[in-house]
Fold:
Amino acid sequence: MWLSNSSVGRKLVMAVTGACLVLFVTFHCLMNAVAICWPAAYNSICEFLGANWYALIASAGLALLILIHIIYAVMLTLQNRKARGSERYAISHKPASVEWSSQNMLVLGIVILAFLVVHLIQFWAKMQLQEIRGAVETLPPAAGTLFIQKAFETSWTLIVYGIGFAALWFHLNHGFWSMFQSAGWNNSDWMPRLKKIGCWWSTIVVALFFAQGIVFTVKAHEKYYLTNETLREQYKDMIVPMIEKDFGPDAAQVAMQVKMMPYGQVSQMMRQNEAGLRQALEQVPTSDFQEQMKQNPQLKEQVEMAQKQYEVFENVVKLLDYLESSDDQPNMELPAGATGHSH
Structure:
């Protein structure tokens, strides 16, 4: 096949996949900017780009593009080394700046790939992948700002990201104009312009990534994503799907209470119900209670439902504990009559 067997075809595939990845990097940079300017909107975008069919297709397409780009990069590198033969061991003058990146694109690509793996583990694996698996985790998959908090409250994250961003700058700086050259747009008038455009574009994008990483780190250490009142109200609403999914016949009642109450009251209600159910379920292992369950099938069903509800409350309380881990003030007291559902 021409696209895989010829040098020109391979370079064209690299150019097309590279152009798509350039557009994705630009989109990702803009999405991160939303997380800084309007964190609640960023969470809404994360929810929109969850495990929906269009997001899954886009994710699969992006993964395929990256895989093709890597495979063809390796093929071209091996082809070039084979063509040069022993000449590659000869000492020759190596141009600086962009030309250096031209000679080390594979190494830069490996560094970027390692950085991408870390990034996927910190975000995609805990967000979209969890939705696909239907797994119940402490942090809701749509709470993108909480995953920013978890990632950037760790001291080594910014260092790893800084190395990844530096490699990305060299890779993009060369790759931007190189993809036009591979596509045949290679003349003395436009090539210098494309190199300047590529330099400006890659510098702006990577500088924004650096700035975003610094802002995320500062805010994470300030616990901003945990304590911001607007975000807490948003996290509170993310509890509702957890209740509606696994809570049983009382789901609608409890979900309505969660929607109507402010965050502080919901926190108090969840903790009270979790404590009450835990206390009640501690009686289940006793021999007397086991005997009652054998004689009363309805009681057994009630216990099984209580165990499911307790698992929901327990998971919600873990989320609340994380959100309130840096709080100095105690939880708000519930007004009379707002005790929630109890057993």
Notes: Confidence is low (pLDDT under 50) at residues 88-92, 329-343.
